[in-house]
Structure formats: C-alpha cells, structure tokens
Amino acid sequence: MSAQELDSRLDRLEKAFAGFSPDLRLARRYMEPDAASSLTKSRMVLEKLVIQVYAAEMGHEPRKPLLGDMLADNQFTRKVERRILSRMTGGRGSDCDIRLTDICVSREVFALNWDAEKEAFELIDFGCRNPMLVNGKKVAGRQLLAAGDLIITGQTVMRLEALA
Question: Which among 37, 67, 131, 150 could bridge 30 via Cys, Cβ 3.0 to 4.6 Å?
C-alpha cells in the first residue's frame, strides 16, 4: 500500500472516529522513522476503540481494559458482528503471536488469517528457507485450512483444531 493510499484510509477513519484523530495521526507520523512505535500507538488506539464498543454493547466498562481480555469475553464477542479479519503471525520472533522455539524456523515464517465470511483460516507462507507443508504438501503462498490439517514448518508439527 502506498503512503497516499494509507493517508486516504486514515482520512476516512478520522471522519468515522473523530475522537481518535490525534492518536491516529501520531501513529502515522511514527510509521516510517519507528515502525515499532507506530504499531504500539496503533494498538493503543484499537484498545481505546474496543473499550468504547465494549461499554456500549455491555452497558458497563470492562473489568480489565486489556484487549485480549475483552476479546476473550464470550458475552461481548457474541454481540459484535464478525466481519473483522484477524491475523496472527508465527515464527521464532518475540513479536509473533504463535511463538515457536524450533531453531530450524525463521523469526517470522507464516501468518494465519481468519476470514469470518469464509469461516476458515488461511495460511500464508512468507517463503522462508524451509517450506511450509500442510498435510504433507508444500504451500504455494496461500492456502485455506480445515479442522484437522497438519501444518509443518522446520521440525515443528501443528494441528488445526476446531472448538466445539
């Protein structure tokens, strides 16, 4: 995405969420000189927004205003329309959501995207030295996953399980 496209999206967000405008602009200013700080500031904006949505939907402030705790609250998440595409990264890196200790794995190897419309996870292989395998077959960039799929990277074997 170009800087111009990003600024255009930011303008639309500022119109929809005027109260977050200064924080959004601050996060954008940090993007090029300090991407990690920009990500932290963006997460803070997201947490503030989720706290407001939580309070509006539940009729009270969250007991713990932490993003993970609010999103783990089933009573809250059942009230929110599931149109949001979730993304988790996996690898050895400390910033990965799915942290692997396998020395044969790169810092950031893959991403898992949840698409509520498709009701499926999509595995995205970042093209590291060791190929990603799903059920023994090499992943060519992106692949939809199903419950029970075996995912292999380096010497790590993972199984995608469905929650009942």
Answer: 37
Residue 157's identity, in one-letter code, is V
Distance CA(164)–CA(151), nearest Å, equals 21
Amino acid type, 122:
E
Average pLDDT for consecutive 10-residue bins of the chain (164 residues)? 76 79 78 73 79 86 82 80 68 87 90 80 87 91 91 92 69
- Which are the contacts of 87, defined by CB distance < 8 A and separation ≥ 6? 111, 112, 113, 114
The single-letter code of the amino acid at 98 is I
Give one DSSP letter per residue of 3-68, joined into a string.
HHHHHHHHHHHHHHTGGGHHHHHHHHHHTTT-HHHHHHHHHHHHHHHHHHHHHHHHSS--SS--HH
Residue type, 138: K
- Amino acid 68 reads G
Q: Say how far residue 32 (Cα) sits from the centre of its chain.
A: 20
Q: Is residue 43 within 8 Å of 60, Cβ to Cβ?
A: no
Q: pTM (2 decimals)? A: 0.49
Cα–Cα nearest to 97, from 106, 86, 88: 88
